[in-house]
């Protein structure tokens, strides 16, 4: 790709730009799928528009459907025009598309990988990609084993001297601890841990990355980031959508496996971790693993005391009637799969002793959003007791999506001759504060994988520790189903979830 075309839109003046990644070829397995069209190609185009891609790059789509390079590029252009955060520039798209090609093969045909190896060698010679290869498993998880085995047999997993080979593995990374270990072993047969990038797009979101900066670069917060000052923490992920055509997967998974095991436990780790020894990937991930190992196990009867599972019934979202989960296409009419889960989690270490973390995630809730809310302890009521004024607790809210930013609720006196205390909010928005659109998560993660930076990717022990915690809950659920609560679509979840947090003399924050 011509260097000039890729750098027509420079990074914002005044920001320190990162080192340009090495020239490389990105091979996307499952290139005709939804992930490629909605996320990966728009992300790559936006990186090109920001001048962040190396001038020498190739993108090869590997899939089973029969099509030409031209047809593939036309389909990708339509998707990029629809899903890109930046409007497509025709000249830039033409330049970007020139580096994209299509490779047709069945995933289980070894000859297809031999042909791919020859094609990659030709691209190295023609485009100067230096033998560096990044393989992205965007196919269905049931195809991972055959793809990894053929990459190993064909030698594509082995980097030549002076070059590198890496693999990105999409979630779901297993369905329980045994399957996650099995998948880890499969990956390890072809790629060692230093070559493996397990992707969790929540970690690529700008606000998730900023949690460590917020904590460790601001003494006013780090000094209070402990059980002496914090009453409890709430982590919420809500969405108005139902299963939206994913019933075949979702009915076997449920909210606990689909969201808590990966996304929300990752956010908990970033919130609760100790200061790392350095900013290198392993120092940060070591501290996250320590949090997972400090989680108080939820087993047996404790699960039914501290975990609420729910399923949406019929109701209304934004004034439109929607069906119950059990009436969705391809859902078992007697399904007990949870579309909502709320947990009270305790981190049993010195910093967090006695501070509960309340986690909730649900479908068909009134509003879309993900946030971490740090609720500080109340001030002594002595000073303002005579006035009759109630004082709201201070709350620091880290908004992960959709409006990424940070806000702090504090108390202030209303103007006037009488003493009236009202909560006010100090608000920071990424989009308005820095004068540029926040990059999509996949942009950052693809760039990091090309650069060989695994900080925002899950390590093997992280994945397995998270599954260990979640599997114990599922084991208890398997013994009974009478605890499944139902909630109307458009509500904030079952009443039992309110009771869970009310026991702590608190309420859920409304997004």
What does this structure look like?
With 511 residues, the chain is an alpha/beta fold. The protein has helices at 3-6, 34-49, 69-83, 90-97, 110-127, 144-154, 177-190, 206-216, 219-222, 247-272, 281-294, 301-306, 430-433, 441-451, 460-477, 495-502; strands spanning 24-29, 57-63, 100-104, 133-137, 165-169, 196-198, 230-238, 307-313, 315-317, 320-322, 340-346, 356-362, 369-376, 395-401, 405-413, 421-429, 485-488. It has 16 helices and 17 strands. It starts with a helix and ends in a 9-residue tail after the last helix. α2 (34-49) crosses α3 (69-83), α7 (177-190) runs antiparallel to α15 and α10 crosses α11 (281-294).
Q: What is the global morphology? A: globular
Helix content: 25-40%
The CATH first-level class of the largest domain comes to Alpha Beta
- Low-pLDDT ranges: 1-17
Counted by DSSP, the helix tally is: 16
Question: What keywords describe this structure?
Answer:
17 strands; disordered N terminus; Dihydrodipicolinate Reductase, domain 2; 511 residues; 16 helices; 9-stranded mixed beta sheet; alpha/beta; Rossmann fold; 6-stranded parallel beta sheet; single chain; 2 domains
């Amino acid at each position: 790709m011509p260097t000039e075309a890729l750098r027509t839109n420079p990074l914002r003046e005044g920001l320190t730009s990162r080192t340009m990644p090495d020239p490389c070829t990105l091979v996307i397995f499952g290139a005709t799928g939804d992930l490629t069209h909605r996320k990966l190609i728009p992300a790559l185009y936006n990186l090109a528009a920001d001048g962040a891609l190396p001038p020498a790059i190739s993108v090869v789509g590997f899939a089973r459907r029969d099509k030409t390079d031209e047809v593939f590029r036309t389909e990708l252009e339509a998707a990029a025009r629809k899903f890109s955060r930046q409007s497509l520039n025709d000249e830039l798209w033409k330049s970007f598309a020139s580096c994209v090609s299509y490779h047709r093969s069945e995933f289980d045909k070894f000859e297809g990988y031999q042909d791919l190896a020859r094609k990659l060698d030709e691209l190295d010679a023609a485009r100067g990609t230096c033998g560096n290869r990044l393989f992205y498993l965007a196919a269905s998880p049931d195809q991972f084993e055959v793809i990894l085995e053929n990459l190993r047999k064909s030698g594509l997993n082995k980097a030549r001297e002076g070059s590198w080979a890496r693999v990105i593995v999409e979630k779901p990374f297993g369905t329980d601890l045994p399957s996650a270990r099995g998948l880890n072993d499969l990956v390890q047969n072809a790629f060692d841990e230093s070559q493996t990038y397990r992707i969790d797009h929540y970690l690529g979101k700008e606000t998730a990355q900023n949690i460590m900066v917020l904590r460790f670069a601001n003494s006013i917060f780090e000094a209070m980031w402990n059980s002496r000052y914090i009453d409890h923490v709430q982590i919420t992920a809500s969405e108005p959508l139902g299963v939206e055509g994913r019933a075949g997967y979702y009915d076997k998974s449920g909210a606990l496996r689909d969201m808590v095991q990966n996304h929300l436990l990752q956010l908990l780790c970033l919130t609760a971790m100790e200061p790392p020894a350095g900013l290198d990937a392993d120092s940060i991930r070591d501290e996250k693993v320590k949090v997972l190992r400090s989680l108080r196990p939820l087993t047996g009867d404790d699960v039914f005391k501290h975990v609420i599972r729910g399923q949406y019934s019929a109701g209304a979202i934004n004034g439109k009637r929607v069906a119950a989960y059990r009436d969705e296409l391809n859902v078992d009419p007697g399904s007990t799969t949870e579309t909502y889960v709320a947990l009270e989690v305790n981190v049993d270490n010195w910093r967090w002793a006695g501070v509960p973390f309340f986690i909730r995630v649900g479908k068909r809730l009134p509003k879309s959003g993900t946030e971490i809310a740090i609720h500080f302890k109340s001030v002594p009521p002595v000073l303002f007791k005579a006035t009759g004024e109630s004082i709201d607790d201070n709350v620091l809210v880290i908004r992960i999506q959709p409006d990424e930013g940070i806000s702090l609720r504090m108390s202030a006196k209303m103007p006037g001759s009488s003493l009236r205390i009202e909560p006010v909010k100090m608000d920071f928005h990424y989009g308005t504060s820095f004068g540029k659109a926040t990059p999509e998560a996949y942009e950052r993660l693809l760039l990091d994988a090309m650069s060989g930076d695994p900080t925002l990717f899950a390590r093997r022990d992280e994945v397995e520790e998270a599954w260990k915690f979640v599997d114990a809950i599922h084991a208890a659920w398997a013994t009974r189903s009478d605890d499944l609560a139902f909630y109307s679509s458009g509500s904030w979840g079952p009443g039992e979830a309110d009771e869970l947090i009310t026991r702590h003399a608190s309420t859920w924050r409304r997004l």
